[in-house]
Write a structure and sequence with these properties.
By secondary structure, this protein is of the alpha+beta class. It contains 9 helices and 13 strands. The protein has a domain of 125 residues: Putative Large Serine Recombinase, Chain B, Domain 2 (Hect, E3 ligase catalytic domain fold), CATH 3.90.1750.20.
Length: 364
């Protein structure tokens, strides 16, 4: 490995094994052009998802499909499965420094001889041999993209790892395991290993994939809250204030109570007969009971309204946010059930008067 020889069975995307020396790599110009273009698009500010969409729109074969087109069929791949470009594939290419002409080996070792367990090494322990094969991109372009990606992690600030203990498998409801063995943290359900047939999350999702879904869901929830607030403001301006209805009902109640007392005084003064008194009293009593019931309903609605106002204010304080950080997640979200890369179920905090569960479906 320290000699910079390539010892894997398959060359990585952008290269072929040399026909003269299988331990050396030569450029595959067709795929190398795509690799270079991916780095250039990222350096221009395009996100990984945007890059993947562009390549898919142009019907450019993903690395897996490209190798399949060259009759390189790996035994662990499904021959009939169509593999599209996605942000993970783009991220893997952007993180691979071997495209600068370096051979990088020894990222992991077995914990002991014969053991199936491995230990991932720190970067300063890797074996790095420069100039072992022709570079596709310059070190300067790689560094620019790497710095840009580090400084502009797509959807949230992971400094305090806000997703920890927040994500649950939508199938078994257990906490998702976080894997930080690579530059891109991933989440997976460990219980898929223990059952052959289950509804657990299959494979893994990156932090950025989940964070993007959460970002979109929170923005949608904030928009809903803002819309409710705006409609309430308009209703208040048009005379539909709930407080106004309560005030009016109480005023009518007081009026009818006074009216009933006046009827009693007239009866005592013998200005009306007993039959007239009883008939009028019964009529007024029915109105009073109806108003008392109405006031109870309106006051309950007012309590719910006040609770909802508190919820709305909690959401609207983040109305113009752009970065998903620890504070926002801890303030608004109780837990998240993850079903697949397009579906999550969010249990929100501050649910008094608000529907608790939001199901989010993100177009693939």
């Amino acid at each position: 490995m320290k000699q910079g020889k390539f010892l894997s069975s398959y060359a990585f995307y952008g290269y072929n094994k040399s026909p003269d020396d299988k331990s050396k790599l030569v450029i595959d110009h067709e795929a190398a052009g795509i690799v270079k273009r991916i780095f250039e698009m990222r350096s221009e500010g395009l996100g990984r998802i945007e890059i993947a969409k562009i390549l898919n729109t142009e019907n450019i074969l993903s690395p897996a499909m490209y190798k399949r087109s060259k009759n390189i069929i790996r035994p662990w791949n499904t021959p009939n499965q169509k593999v599209m470009w996605n942000d993970c594939a783009i991220g893997k290419i952007l993180a691979d420094e071997r495209y600068t002409g370096k051979m990088i080996c020894g990222k992991q070792i077995r914990k002991s001889v014969g053991s199936s367990k491995i230990r991932f090494l720190d970067k300063d322990e890797w074996i790095v041999v420069p100039d072992t094969h022709e570079a596709i991109i310059s070190p300067e372009l790689f560094q620019k993209v790497h710095t840009y990606t580090t400084n502009r992690r797509a959807t949230y600030d992971p400094t305090n790892k806000p997703l920890r203990r927040l994500l649950y498998c939508g199938g078994c409801r257990h906490v998702l395991n976080r894997s930080s063995h690579t530059e891109i943290d991933r989440f997976r359900c460990k219980y898929t290993r223990f059952t052959g047939d289950c509804n657990c999350l299959q494979g893994s999702l990156t932090e950025d994939e989940i964070a993007e879904m959460l970002l979109n869901a929170i923005k949608t929830q904030i928009d809903i809250m803002a819309d409710r607030s705006n409609k309430r403001t308009i209703g208040h301006a048009n005379g539909f204030s709930l407080d106004g209805k309560v005030k009016k009902a109480k005023s009518n109640l007081e009026k009818h109570n006074n009216e009933r007392f006046d009827i009693y005084k007239k009866f005592r003064a013998e200005k009306i007969s007993q039959d007239q008194f009883q008939a009028k009293r019964n009529e007024i009593t029915i109105k009073i009971e109806a108003l008392e019931e109405e006031i109870v309903v309106l006051e309950n609605q007012a309590q719910l309204r006040n609770a909802e106002d508190a919820v709305i204010s909690q959401y609207r304080q983040y109305e113009n946010f752009e970065v998903l950080n620890d504070e926002i997640i801890k303030t608004l979200i109780d837990k998240v059930y993850v079903y697949d890369k397009n579906h999550i179920e969010i249990i929100w905090k501050f649910t008094d008067g608000i529907k608790n569960v939001t199901l989010c479906e993100i177009d693939a």
